[in-house]
Design brief:
The complex is a heterodimer of chains A (about 350) and B (about 325).
Chain A: H1 22-40, H2 45-57, H3 60-85, H4 93-110, H5 116-145, H6 149-169, H7 201-219, H8 221-231, H9 233-238, H10 243-270, H11 281-291, H12 296-320, H13 326-345
Helix pairs in contact in A: 1-13, 2-3, 2-12, 3-7, 3-8, 3-10, 3-11, 3-12, 4-5, 4-6, 4-10, 4-11, 5-6, 5-10, 7-8, 7-12, 11-12, 12-13
Chain B: H1 3-6, H2 9-38, H3 46-68, H4 71-99, H5 104-125, H6 128-131, E1 140-141, H7 151-155, E2 157-158, H8 160-178, H9 180-190, H10 192-197, H11 202-229, H12 240-250, H13 255-278, H14 285-302, H15 305-308
Antiparallel strand pairs in B: 1-2
Helix pairs in contact in B: 2-8, 2-11, 2-12, 2-13, 3-4, 3-5, 3-11, 3-12, 4-5, 4-11, 8-9, 8-13, 12-13, 12-14, 13-14
Classes of the chains: A mainly alpha (about 350), B mainly alpha (about 325).
């Protein structure tokens, strides 16, 4: 099937051969446009790109940082890949991520005496449950009451974010701290590192899920049914597939992964519950899934690319005084460029 | 909560006055988005559009004010710049979602990312903006009416942009429900194929409505930075673009109800500022901030939204497809 994120068209041969090159066209377009921006801020674009690439991938420290930042994006975008393939517009990953982080933190803060071997799995489970609850709530509103799914997931985003803000400020606030945040988690609540690196178990989980999602979507009956629902509801009906049930399944699976990403981030990166635990991951992951053509391996590549831009831009800021926000601009331009490339290659006269 | 501090007349007047003021930027974005969605395009990128409008409006006002010294004129021109920035973002949205038929969710989220990062970039790239303040537009009490006790203070002692926004509520309502053009807009959001059969240009109508909506959101952003805060900081809209989308659904695409929704948001927002300032915990301020989202869900839950949603909302139009 073709991806639902690309323009619907009755394409005729013509520029269709350009289609596989859409990401390349997009990348070039993004480079040209952002070069203008870099020149305007008084730097040499070639030098800037070199600094950017070296800052993201130039050494083991940089690569580690890029991988760490790519992990939540990858986890969420893999979940969204499942949802979007079933044509389920879950744009509530940001909220599901926050509720996952919240429930995971509650476990870490209320059961500090458990050994790591019990505490970590419980936290991860709580995070998944949080994501399930939040996406399930949206699913319930959508399927039982007919509320537009985009809107329910969207509304639940900010409710989730604000619940975390409240929880960190009032009930779980560290009474000895100055900031509206919880006390630091006990060491046992930190997801274990891999060997002596700064990478953690969550990275492995995310990588393993690339394969799992691929097998789920293309090698399992469930995946076939999900994609059938995504292809066309009427087709799914005629195949005897219960569409409501599969919409809910797709939603729950994507919510679970977003919740998992949330709990992993609070456990490892922030080690406490506080506001600002997401860099807009839930929204950015939508674009990561799109850029990765909703294909797990593609999603892996685009998550690393998006994260590399963010990490590299920090170096750019330090050495060339170019604002680090250039990373977001590059990401947006990249997506726009790819959409442009696809539109050109799929043009129906 | 120190209730005796709440139920004083001065406090209530202050809350309601501030509520109306805070509602204005959101109201502008909501009215525009109603027109856009009525034509069948869901622009989820309002947060990015408002930020661009807010930045362009503020930067223009600041530099004009610095060079000419004309404070109020600079502010009005700045508001114009906000509209222009909004229109540019709207053009991008229109090209993506109407011409290229990109999924509207993807197009909208891309707009948000672009608006957030580009304004942060531009703000950081120009160190002068961080310390910059503008004068804005002075309050214009309405002669006679503003002297009425209590009500005069709440309703008739505002900046001209507040009166303008209220006028736009009626204008939008009139346009959508009392003009032929409004009928075309609503028809194109319900059944574009039928509209096309009757010889109207679906693409042009949708372009126009997307541009109007984004222009108004850009204006809303500029009103926020130029008239209300007199400054720009990164992420200054703080989710108002998303709230605007919530209110569009809350109001069922109806400008009159949108006014109510925006006011409700404004008052809740004013109240949370006050409660934070008082350091009270009787109502945690986060719950007040959640209110627009929760209320929207509740309204959608108990109303039959399906009957009123423009039937073609979010669906790209392909010539010849029925």
């Amino acid at each position: 099937m073709t991806s639902e994120l690309i323009p619907v068209s009755q394409s005729k041969p013509g520029l269709g051969w350009l289609k596989p090159w859409a990401p390349v066209i997009g990348g070039l377009l993004a480079l040209v446009l952002s070069s203008i921006l870099i020149i305007l801020s008084g730097a040499n674009p070639l030098e800037a790109y070199q600094v950017l690439v070296l800052g993201a991938f130039g050494g083991s420290r940089q690569i580690t940082e890029t991988i760490l930042k790519a992990t939540p994006l990858l986890l969420i975008a893999l979940g969204l890949t499942i949802a979007f393939r079933a044509r389920v517009w879950n744009i509530g990953a940001e909220g599901q991520y926050h509720i996952g982080a919240l429930l995971g933190s509650i476990v870490a803060l209320t059961l500090p005496n458990l050994p790591a071997l019990l505490l970590i799995p419980l936290m991860l489970l709580a995070g998944i449950v949080g994501g399930l609850l939040w996406s399930g709530l949206a699913g319930l509103l959508h399927l039982k009451r007919g509320v537009n799914l985009i809107i329910c997931t969207l509304m639940l985003n900010y409710i989730g974010i604000l619940m975390v803000q409240y929880a960190a400020r009032v009930p779980f606030r560290d009474p000895d701290g100055f900031l509206p945040e919880s006390a630091k988690f006990v060491d046992a609540a930190q997801i274990p590192r891999l060997f002596s690196s700064r990478l953690h178990l969550g990275v492995l989980v995310a990588l393993a899920l690339v394969g799992v999602v691929y097998v789920l979507l293309w090698r399992s009956p469930l995946g076939f049914r999900l994609r059938a629902v995504g292809a066309k509801i009427s087709v799914a009906h005629s195949l005897g597939i219960n569409t409501s049930q599969h919409i809910l399944t797709a939603l729950l699976l994507s919510g679970a992964l977003a919740g998992l990403a949330g709990v992993i981030e609070v456990s490892y990166t922030y080690t406490r519950l506080k506001q600002g635990i997401s860099d807009g991951y839930g929204f950015t992951a939508i674009l990561v899934a799109l850029l990765g053509q909703m294909n797990p391996v593609g999603v892996l590549v685009s998550a690393v690319l998006f994260s590399g831009l963010v990490v590299g831009a920090q170096t750019l800021n330090v050495s060339l005084q170019i604002p680090a926000a250039v990373a977001g601009v590059l990401q947006a331009l990249l997506v726009l460029g790819v959409l442009a490339g696809q539109a050109i290659s799929q043009r129906d006269n | 909560m120190p209730w005796d501090q709440v139920f004083t007349l001065t406090f209530l007047v202050a809350i309601l006055t501030a509520g109306i003021r805070l509602a204005t930027p959101v109201l502008l974005a909501v009215l525009g988005e109603i027109i856009t969605q009525r034509s069948g395009v869901m622009n989820l990128g309002l947060e990015g559009v408002m930020l661009m409008g807010g930045w362009a409006g503020f930067a223009t006002t600041y530099y004009l004010e610095q060079s000419t010294g004309l404070t109020e004129l600079s502010a009005w021109i700045g508001l114009g710049a906000g509209i222009v920035a909004g229109l540019l973002m709207g053009l991008l949205m229109a090209v993506l979602s109407i011409t290229w038929r990109t999924d509207q969710v993807v197009a909208g989220i891309t707009l948000v990312l672009l608006g957030q990062s580009l304004t942060t970039y531009l703000y950081r790239a120009d160190p002068a903006l961080a310390k910059a303040r503008v004068t804005g537009i002075a309050l214009r009490p309405i002669p006679g009416l503003s002297d009425i006790p209590v009500v005069g203070d709440i309703l008739f002692n505002h900046s001209p942009v507040v009166y303008l926004s209220v006028a736009l509520v009626f204008l939008c309502g009139f346009l959508l429900f009392r003009t032929n053009w409004g009928l075309q807009i609503r028809a194109v959001g319900e059944n574009p194929a039928a509209v096309a059969t009757s010889g109207l240009n679906v693409t042009r109508l949708r372009y126009l409505c997307t541009l109007i909506g984004s222009g108004m959101a850009g204006l809303g952003g500029a009103v926020l930075t130029v008239v209300q805060l007199n400054l720009f900081i990164e992420g200054v809209t703080a989710g108002r673009g998303w709230i605007a989308i919530a209110i569009v659904f809350f109001s069922r695409w109806n400008p009159g109800l949108a006014l109510g929704g925006a006011l409700l948001f404004g008052v809740a927002d004013a109240l949370q500022f006050r409660i934070q300032a008082l350091g009270s915990e009787a109502i945690p301020y986060e719950f007040l901030l959640m209110l627009p989202y929760v209320l929207t869900l509740v309204v959608l839950l108990f109303g039959n939204a399906r009957d009123q949603t423009p039937a073609a909302l979010g669906i790209p139009y392909v010539k010849g497809n029925r």
